[in-house]
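Sample entry (312 residues):
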Amino acid sequence: MTQRRYANDIPDQSGRTAVVTGANSGIGLITARELARHGARVLLACRDERRGKEAAARIRGAVPDADVEFAGLDLADLSSVREFAAAYTPDRLDLLINNAGVMALPYRRTADGFETQFGVNHLGHFALTGLLLPKLLATPGARVVSVSSGLHALSNIDMGDLNSERNYRRWIAYGRSKTANLLFVHELARRTAAIGSGLVAAAAHPGYASTNLQTAGVRMENRRAAERVIEFGNRIIAQPAAAGALPTLYAATAPGVRPDSFTGPRVLGWRGEPAPSWRAGWTLNDVASERLWVASEQLTGVTFAGLGGLGV
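Predicted structure, serialized as tokens:
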């Protein structure tokens, strides 16, 4: 299976509804565009209204009959997450793509006081999934795909310092947030299986793909030399965003995707066609995933209706 072949062979998505977070650029934009190209109705859940509406227009320009719409969502503000979920009116939700994220930022806090990478990459998506869970459970064949990273291998989570208050190192904090994504998928898969639900919770990562994610942190600090080095790497070494989106699209649409699977590029987890990806053993730890789940419910105030604890 080549990258180009899978992009062309995405199954028909007609009649399906998808929410893609961070769909205004990069991998999220490509994911939303290809789902729309294959017939899905796609909600572009983005923080910036202007960029979100521009992305919808770009998709319609590439796919004239695309059924896409912008909807405001700021994952760094739990009140915005609640407003988005309350305003979601369709009676079904087939695909929730938890794609949006931030990488290696200087220390910042979200509107609710959480370290930004943990707050956006994990807690915002945790809350969003929980609030939309009734629609997901009511939709046969629904999937939740969380975009993690091979850089989850940088660090396990620290349950005693989820907000990295004692010792903030931006790349370690990023790795912990991506580990949290995988632990969330693991626990969601366990809990849905325990109630006999057909919901598939899966994870994906893009490898090294050229997007604006890598430069956001250094741009915030006006570190122009570092920004130029990263941009050079994106041009010379990274694969294009269209290739980086393929593992997400595979996890979202390919037949037979298993719950708690982790899809990434085949070649060293860096580039190539979608394939099962290596993941650190700590992301499959039942005790850790249960503890993080309980802590996340307490921090966000969002409980997953119908999914109880497993008592591990």
